[in-house]
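Entry 12.
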Amino acid sequence: MKDLNWDDLHIFFHVAEAGGLSAAARRSGLSAPTIGRRMLALEEQAGQSLFRRGPTGYTLTPAGQALLTRVRAMQAAAQPVQALFADPRERPVLRLSAGTATAHFLADRLAEICPPGDGIRLHFITTEATLDIGHREIDAGIRNRAPEAGNLASRPLGQLRFAPYRSHSLPSAEGLGWVAMDPDSARHPAARWLHAQDLPVAVLANSVATVHELVRAGAGIGVMPCMAGDRDPALTRAGPLIEALDETQHLVFHADDRHRPPLRRLISRLSALYRDNADLLAGRRPLRG
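Predicted 3D structure (tokens):
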């Protein structure tokens, strides 16, 4: 078999990640028919099917999944080479993932993380999912635990605490149901904790931001990190801190990148930001109790 063409593998990566030709075309700039022909040629060269083609898109066969794992590793290995030859006049971009509440907290303090003239640009990726740092889907992620495997390193940032909140416009929490993430979307321990308490759920949502807005509107009581609930003047606590949800947030990054100057500056500034806001993060600064 001839050596596989890297360009074709790069297109394969887009199709596999996007799940179809149209989305891969938007990512790659090629037309969908061209991508389709290139994938057929790649399968012929590989001697086996890589995709199952259906009305809802492309899904990977076992061979395709095995190839995707290896192509991701190739992508990760290529990134440091690309960075080596990047235009030194360009400001480096660091892709930072965080959950909704944490991303909003950081966005409000962007000037402290990336002061003017600093030379760093942040690409915020707001998601409750855990992205793959080892294969460089992102440069760094704020998570509720340190990494346990892979070529990853981390820095503890600080304690984060949670409490129940209700709308300040309501006279009390009496008679209120709870606002919860739907079970399929409940990724964080705080979202799963609520479902384990056998509490009356008044309304469900599939995003953290919508839960927050529903609580503000008076739809019920919601569990939130104190850095979100205590900063919102439209909310008030509906009960004490939930000690079972206490966590330490960590900044996780690729171990090979720990000495990159832009990442070192980001680590230092996030550590200082969490230190300076420790009382807010730990629930010691409620607007009202």
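Annotation: The mean pLDDT is 88. The chain has eleven helices and twelve strands.
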